[in-house]
Write a structure and sequence with these properties.
InterPro entries: TTHA0802/YceI-like_sf. The chain is mainly β. The chain has one helix and three strands; from the N terminus they run βββα. It is rod-shaped.
Length: about 60
């Protein structure tokens, strides 16, 4: 099974960056397993899936200094 679309999702994020040296990003979204045909055991297994993404990056030139 291939998922080609998550449909409309509510995504919230917080970003702190000076865009020259350091970038950090947090994103959170959620969806229901049953929306993708995976709801067979919903009474015993939770239906809602929450995805948290946390990323930090530093420019290579800034890291060398």
């Amino acid at each position: 099974m291939f998922i080609t679309s998550f449909g409309e999702q509510n995504i919230t994020y917080k970003c702190c960056s000076n865009f020259l040296i350091h970038l950090c990003f947090n994103a959170t979204t959620s969806f229901n397993r049953s929306d993708f045909g995976l709801g067979n055991y919903v009474p015993n297994v939770g239906d809602k899936i929450t995805v948290n993404i946390t990323t930090e990056a530093t420019a290579a030139s800034a890291a060398k200094k």
